[in-house]
Each structure stands twice: as C-alpha cells, then as structure tokens.
C-alpha cells in the first residue's frame, strides 16, 4: 500500500458518499461536486491504496470485496468525527436533540422529559417531530424514536415498547348508535383512516375477515395523535395504542369497546448511530429510558 502521499481525506469522504448512495451522480449532488470530480477522487483513493473499490458497469456500480470491507469503517470514522464536532458544539449549551414521531412525542416523551431533566439539570432537550425516517448523516438529531421492526443497518437499536392497537371512540359517538356491542357495530360509524392496514388486521382477529371498508372515506391525518384528537371530538372511530390514551379513558373522553388488541410486528425503538454509543448525553438518555420503561432492551417474544 502506497501511503507516502498526503492522506486523502477528501477522497475518503467522496468514497463514503458513493458507497452509501450506490451512485456517483447522487454522491456528487450531496457533496456539490461534478460526476467527473467524484470519479477523480475515487480513482485517487484506489491508486493510493492499490485496490479497486468499485465495479463499474453500464448504469450501475457495485462495491468490490475491498470496497465492502472499507465502506463501513470509513462511515463509522466520519460518524465519529461528526459526533466529536457535535459534542464540542453542544458542550456550551448541553443540548440533546431527539427526533420522534409526533404521537410518541406527545403521548409519552412530553409526559416524562421533566423527570429526565431533573436527573440531568445541565442538559437541555430539543425535540423534533417527524413521521419519516431521518438520515443521521444529514440531521442535527443525536438520537431518534422510531416505529418499525428494528432492522436498521448501521444504527444501534434498543427496544422500547410493543406497539399494539384497538378501536377507540368517544362515548357520545357510541351512544349515538345505541352503543357498540359487536365489532360490526363499528361499521355504522365513520372510520378514521379506513385505509390503515391495522383495521383489517383487527377485524380479521375479531372474526370478521370479510369486512369491507371500501365505502369509508380515505382520510389520512398523518399521525395517531391527530386521529385520537378527531376521535375525542366525536368525528369517528380511530385505531390506537390504548396505553397512550389511558388518561382520556379515565376522563371519559374515549372508550375502548373491546379487549382485543393486535400487533403487526412494528414496535417502538431507540436508535442512534453506532459511532455515538459512548456519547455522554446519549448514555444519560438511554439510562433514563431503562429506568422508565420496564421492557427497555428486552427481547421480543
């Protein structure tokens, strides 16, 4: 390996972007470089280490064995550098930036962050709401709360809680049809987000696999918390995680007419880049969740 030249940090940065995108063009768009400049930097790195890193095919590139070995190490190295800079930037104000879905943020985080800050008085919290999966390499977030199956390569993943669901509605809406006594009674009412696959999973488990929701309006409110607010207002039946709305049930704003709850394999997880696992602020939040959530990091059975 010829390492007598100046270490090609820029070339490594370009290589990491090309490997991540699987495209010279997309890497160039991210880095503000022409495709020619991207190709030059990759060739410079290949010449430096005496290894071919990509197989160049018509309209497609693929990592070689050498490229596959190098890519994750380079990605982790750049993530470590980004974390070091971020930690320096945040040292003065001590800010932990959390990205979360609006539902988890409003129904769980908002009710528990006070306890976290009592235990960590020198650490401020910045909360971002997003329904989409974020790219940590292009976001200011230190960590995220995600709903899914927990299979995100390159990220450290901790199980938080199961995500199960059941129909819920306003007691006044239920009274408008003389009460909800069987699953089919729900079809007499407006279904909030009838296109949500949770509905058919639940009706199937309730013994009604042939139910059709085609005549129901296909409203999309974008977040479970918004659907819950619509249900509380009496605008329809929502399918919700009941534990998030226990207070609304206690106050008589919502009812859960059936004990049956279902799952689709998608649960709540704490995630952050592997390279940030030793960050002090992430460690503090991780330990807080471990104390606050009995299921934290437990295997899913």
UniProtKB/TrEMBL annotation:
<keyword id="KW-0805">Transcription regulation</keyword>
<keyword id="KW-0804">Transcription</keyword>
<protein>
    <submittedName>
        <fullName>LysR substrate-binding domain-containing protein</fullName>
    </submittedName>
</protein>
<dbReference type="Pfam" id="PF00126">
    <property type="entry name" value="HTH_1"/>
</dbReference>
<feature type="domain" description="HTH lysR-type">
    <location>
        <begin position="7"/>
        <end position="64"/>
    </location>
</feature>
<dbReference type="InterPro" id="IPR000847">
    <property type="entry name" value="LysR_HTH_N"/>
</dbReference>
<dbReference type="InterPro" id="IPR036390">
    <property type="entry name" value="WH_DNA-bd_sf"/>
</dbReference>
<dbReference type="InterPro" id="IPR036388">
    <property type="entry name" value="WH-like_DNA-bd_sf"/>
</dbReference>
<keyword id="KW-0238">DNA-binding</keyword>
<dbReference type="InterPro" id="IPR058163">
    <property type="entry name" value="LysR-type_TF_proteobact-type"/>
</dbReference>
<comment type="similarity">
    <text>Belongs to the LysR transcriptional regulatory family.</text>
</comment>
<dbReference type="Pfam" id="PF03466">
    <property type="entry name" value="LysR_substrate"/>
</dbReference>
<dbReference type="InterPro" id="IPR005119">
    <property type="entry name" value="LysR_subst-bd"/>
</dbReference>
């Amino acid at each position: 390996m010829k390492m007598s030249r100046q270490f090609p940090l820029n070339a490594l940065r370009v290589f990491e972007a090309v490997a991540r995108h699987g495209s010279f063009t997309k890497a160039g768009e991210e880095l503000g470089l022409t495709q020619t400049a991207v190709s030059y930097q990759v060739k410079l790195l290949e010449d430096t280490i005496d290894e071919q890193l990509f197989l160049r095919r018509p309209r497609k590139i693929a990592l070689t064995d050498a490229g596959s070995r190098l890519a994750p190490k380079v990605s982790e190295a750049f993530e470590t550098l980004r974390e070091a800079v971020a930690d320096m930037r945040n040292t003065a104000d001590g800010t932990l930036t959390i990205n979360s879905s609006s539902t988890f943020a409003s129904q769980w985080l908002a009710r528990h962050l006070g306890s976290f800050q009592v235990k960590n008085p020198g650490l401020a919290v910045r909360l971002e709401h997003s329904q989409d999966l974020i790219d940590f390499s292009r976001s200011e977030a230190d960590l995220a709360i995600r709903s899914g199956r927990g299979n995100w390569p390159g990220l450290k993943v901790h199980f938080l809680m199961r995500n199960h669901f059941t129909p819920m509605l306003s007691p006044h809406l239920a009274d408008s049809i003389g009460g909800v006594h069987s699953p089919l009674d729900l079809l007499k009412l407006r279904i909030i987000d009838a296109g949500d696959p949770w509905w058919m999973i639940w009706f199937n488990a309730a013994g009604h696999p042939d139910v059709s929701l085609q005549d129901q309006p296909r409203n999309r409110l974008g977040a479970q918390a918004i659907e819950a607010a619509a249900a509380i207002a009496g605008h329809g039946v929502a399918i919700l995680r009941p534990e998030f709305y226990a207070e609304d049930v206690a106050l008589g704003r919502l009812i859960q007419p059936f004990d049956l709850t279902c799952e689709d394999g998608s649960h709540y997880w704490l995630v952050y880049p592997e390279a940030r696992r030793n960050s002090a602020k992430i460690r503090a939040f991780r330990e807080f969740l471990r104390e606050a959530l009995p299921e934290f990091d437990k295997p899913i059975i």
